[in-house]
Input
Amino acid sequence: MPKPLVVQKFGGTSVGTAERILRCARRTADLVSAGHRVVVVVSAMGQATDELIALAKQVNARPPERELDMLLATGEQVSTALFTMALEGMGVPAAGFTAHQVGIRTDGVFTKARITGVDAARVEKALAEGKACVVAGFQGVSEDQDVTTLGRGASNITAVALAAVLGAERCEILTDVDGIYTADPRVVPTARRLEKISHEEIMELASMGAQVMQTRTVELAKKHNVRLLVAASFGSGPGTLICQKEPGMEEVVVSGLVLNTDEAKVTVQAVKDEPGMASAIFEELALRHINVDIIVQNVSGATGCTDVTFIVAKTDLSKAVDCVKGLVARGLARGVAADEGIAKLSAVGLGMRTHAGVAARMFKALAQEQINIQMISTSEIKISVIIPGADGQRALKALHRAFELDGPPAGSGKPKKDSKRMKS
Amino acid sequence: MPKPLVVQKFGGTSVGTAERILRCARRTADLVSAGHRVVVVVSAMGQATDELIALAKQVNARPPERELDMLLATGEQVSTALFTMALEGMGVPAAGFTAHQVGIRTDGVFTKARITGVDAARVEKALAEGKACVVAGFQGVSEDQDVTTLGRGASNITAVALAAVLGAERCEILTDVDGIYTADPRVVPTARRLEKISHEEIMELASMGAQVMQTRTVELAKKHNVRLLVAASFGSGPGTLICQKEPGMEEVVVSGLVLNTDEAKVTVQAVKDEPGMASAIFEELALRHINVDIIVQNVSGATGCTDVTFIVAKTDLSKAVDCVKGLVARGLARGVAADEGIAKLSAVGLGMRTHAGVAARMFKALAQEQINIQMISTSEIKISVIIPGADGQRALKALHRAFELDGPPAGSGKPKKDSKRMKS
Output
């Protein structure tokens, strides 16, 4: 029976300097000493990727994507070689591999390739020889043997794909935070680190604006039933385990809260209340690649007109307003109003499926704080409300209390103040 | 009939910044416009290789060579991607390739791999599609698909190997000097740029200490009859063509002079004049990897003892002296003397083969300057003398006159003062 296998992925900040690489390698060496087979996936060092992009723009304002990928992939190749050297220096037999050497095959869509297959035979051979393997994250190789990259932050994708193919016990995502919290600890000092959370909840939290794992990574992990452990690279905390729904998980009605203040509200005023009007508005927005979140349409009044309100990212606001102005110019609406002074507060929890009254509890808590709800949106495991931006942090704290999320962190220690998770 | 093919190799200084890459790419674009097919070989940008080595040493004082090669190869991959982007930005269709993509196959001797074969099918295909090809120098790929490097400065090897396989009209070595000179122009202001010189002469000059092309590169070029053009990356000078011996070349008795002041003289005093003594000395030196140049043994005197004198690099001097002290301790010699105050002056020329009296002319010129010759060594196309270091530059100038090398440079312009060729 082979030793249990763990995939460890270290982010760019964690391997940002030689000294940090040595500290991360020590963590890997300890895991090897404890009787594990280990595959390490590394990102590029610190700001390496951004620096390479800046260099590319100096020689070509619109660098061709094939060569951009060839360029960017060097970032992870450097950290792979250095991490392997560090392990060897600690007496841990190790071998580093590029995506080409591992056999991380992708389609030929440069800068955002999708993995089509992972051979991993070479990694399995090295593991069988008792070596720790270090693999360059973020990259793959196309059928034409061209270097491809998987998109920003996609070293996590590499790690999950390897964990799936190799049947790893878990995939550790080691980063600069010590886990996932019930809410952003910088806003809610009483926020607790979650011990366990389901893939689905993390996906909802991410799509609501929490800066946790990318949805794409969690989706892949869910599909292949890979257990993800989010923990701090430097520290011994137990972190947060993202896994399949387990008995006991259902008992928690709300797992986490997210406050998102990066969005704005657009109101299309006095739209003619006729069939096809909504589609006219949102087709226009889609054509300009503007993602729309919550949409609310008022009941039509005596005028035969209605207001349509929707939420967009602040970065898309001026584009969205321009778009609506076009409709106004064509006489399809009377005017447009934009409001950047809003916040979206979301509660996510598997327990909502089985527990009635979660929405009522949320609205009651906000009413007690005299906070006005402007819009509401729900899914099976999520409730979001749009509220005045100025009330955001107070509302977040009130809900954190109302859903009984306050308390000392599960497990060891106090929540880290530098946590970036559940960022508002 | 396909367009003539030129391989252009740009050194690290030439591609040291984005701005310099753009200037080099302009040179390539001009060659393409002039109706050539072009394959560009690039070194790593400026000090990139040294920086990567320094980084490696921070994580492991003795970095494993396999990972060192994986690390260093990123330097050329970066400049390859950037150079290709620069060409594309100028409207020149281009494609960049790593050694793996080209098919530069090597043995598995990391950090000093030898090329075992070059496929180049992919480069030929891209050329046929009308693309300029940019290839990462200095690197190859082993049978195990591991990244290998070919040794310091070996981007020239990549360029010559590609020129040979592709049947290029010439291989341009573009660098920070504008050609090869009859002597170091910083010492001899009247030194002339050579228009043409044979592979053999360049090899002798290089081995005598001239900082021209590495012997290994010229050997490979000679073997495959590749014509090398050494010229400045930034400038329009004609450079120096290194090619096979051609009619007319023989007429020049001496092509170039080299003054080397990086060596020292070691004298083993009162060695017993018995068979096997010389081999005892030089076996010891070889065991410690000390390269020995000129060796002179005095005629044995009445004492039955003799002095043996040889030349080593100054960097090896203390090791060599220690080595001889060991012989003294074993009673095989009486003592050792070291002299760092020497210079080696060499004259190289194909014409020596057919012209008698070259040595006499050399010795006479030195005698007229009252310069004492300590040691002499000759080969078919070379004469070297060891003289007092303080007389070195005066001797070099005297010989330059004596062999009628003074004069305006062949071709255009005056010799560049910043030339590094024929460095003393």
User: Anything to note?
Assistant: Chain A has two domains: 5-175, 246-424. The interface with chain B takes residues 18-19, 21-22, 25, 52, 55-56, 58-64, 66-68, 70-71, 73-74, 77-78, 80-86, 88-89, 95-96, 98, 100-101, 145-147 of chain A (CB under 8 Å).
